[in-house]
């Protein structure tokens, strides 16, 4: 089966590049990496994004479970998108 092109690929690629460059575990970055992990989990394509998401977890020395726990806490506190113009969830 051939790889598929995800409709959100270009925006997600640009966002992931920004997060990789920043490298910090800011609330926004953690929330976005968790969101992208969910979006691309099991997706038959976007292998570069999936590899970069794995690399970010390694860089941050976080397991998948730890990432998701941090993201849940961030969303419960409402701090994920405080510094951003948009408060919408783009799942």
* Alpha plus pi helix count: 4
Fraction in helix = 55-70%
The computed structural class is mainly alpha
Give the CA-based shape. Answer: globular
Secondary-structure element series = HHHH
Q: Radius of gyration over alpha carbons?
A: 13 Å
Q: Count the beta strands.
A: 0
Unreliable residue stretches: none
Distance between the termini: 25 Å
Q: Could you give a short account of the major beta sheet?
A: none
Indicate the mean pLDDT.
Answer: 90
The portion of residues forming beta strands comes to: under 5%
Structure explained in plain terms:
The chain has 91 residues and is mostly helical. Helices cover 62% and strands 0% of the residues. It contains four helices and no strands. Helix 2 packs across helix 4. It is globular. The two termini are 25 Å apart.
Indicate the topology.
Layout: H1 9-22, H2 27-40, H3 47-60, H4 64-77
